[in-house]
Amino acid sequence: MNKAVGGILIAAAIVGIFRHVTAPVPAPGKESIAKPPRPVPQLAVEREDFRCDGRQYCRQMTSCAEARYFLEHCPGVKMDGEKDGIPCEDQWCGLQ
Q1: Deepest in the core among 9, 18, 37, 45, taking most CB within 10 A?
Q2: How much is the pTM?
Q3: In 3-state terms, what secondary structure has residue 58?
């Protein structure tokens, strides 16, 4: 009976290896049909002319780039009421 069990185990191992080796491979050029992910807004704006100077509100900004810099680099700003990472949406950085 031990020979029968050993034969079954060997046969199962061979079948497992065969299934692994003969797994379907995608045709060239058809690896992925999924759409690429949407780009994430770039918030880190490195500009030498922007400085954290105590301003906190959108009404104190002069551009979206400045508001983004302040949101990313300056403490205590109040420019992202929705907490979505986009500052001053009504005044400067609204998505069209």
Answers
A1: 45
A2: 0.50
A3: helix
Find the mean pLDDT for residues 47-68.
91
Helices in the chain by DSSP H: which ranges?
2-21, 64-73
Virtual torsion, Cα 62, 68, 71, 74, nearest 10 deg: -70
Give domain limits for the chain: 41-96
Q: Distance of CA 6 to CAs 2, 9, 15, 42, Å?
A: 6, 5, 14, 61
What percent of the chain lies above the pLDDT cut of 70?
A: 48
Q: Residue type for 60, please?
A: Q
Report residue 33 as tokens.
């049909």
CA distance 49 to 39: 27
Q: What is the DSSP letter of 3?
A: H
